[in-house]
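To assess whether ligand presence alters the predicted conformation, the chain was also submitted together with manganese (II) ion. Input:
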Amino acid sequence: MRPIKHIHGDEAPHWVGDGFYVKTLINHLNDDANFNYSHTDPFLLFDYGMPTTFAPNPDYKTQPHGIGLHPHKGFETVTLAYQGEITHADSTGGQADILEGDVQWMTAGRGILHEEFHSQSFGQRGGVFSMVQMWVNLPSTHKLTAPKYQTIKRADMPIVALKENTDDQKSIGTAAIIAGDWQGVTGIADTFTPVNLWDIAIHDAGATTLLVPNTHNTLMLVQEGEVLINDTEVSAGNLIQFAAPTQQRTDIPAGQAPTSDSIKLKLVEPVNTSDEPAPTTPVKLLLLSGEPIGEPVAGHGPFVMNTQEDLRQTFRDYQTGRFGE
Ligand code: MN
């Protein structure tokens, strides 16, 4: 079993633009007793978008909620819409709506400018908005790759059943494989380093076990509900950081797969206080794991490079209109 190292969740929420009310649960710029980037590498940052209710916006066409044109360089932004919809437009001419259940995997690479707003349809009707965005680092060999994005529709994610840890192997939930490999089932996201991203839902009481490579840094968000993770109770809005990998990929002979660590998930049946059976509250989780890149990081604001000199050059380029060249 991979033990829990720390649970991130106490951070105060803040607004990103006027559209995203988020708690930044990890940030590579922090370095304290509870956080060190080497333990989450390649995941630089994780914003948990708190479920937030927006009124219908009658001024959508002139004042949509969100954040206007801004740059990124040197990494990827991965955005999942849980409730509500996001419209994205960027300097490569790319434009897409991220609808409920969809994922956008944007590679900033050598530089991109983009805007992120509520979609027109969601903005005009209003409602509950909830999303997450994470930043995935790029290795130095691909830091200056051409910017691009992948739209990963919910319908294109393979869905695997979560089997109960009992003889009858009843299915108690599902995992949508966005990226990486689930015992031979692979997600369609193209990644530059090995990364798993699994969108998990548990709908029945019971216990099940996930397997992750023992070479990966591993994190798990509780997006909704309450669940026992390796026998520790965790509620929505918390990001679990598991203990460091026990093996490095370079220690494993080529062609051999790393061994797996288990993570036990258990959904507890609510206590029944009336004659009616109490409904089980569904649980949503997001599993992130990745092979550490293991390179130095020099980051500031929306740029993440390998050295301070590269970072200074990026700011100079941005100020002189040579960004992304
Ligand atoms: Mn952005």
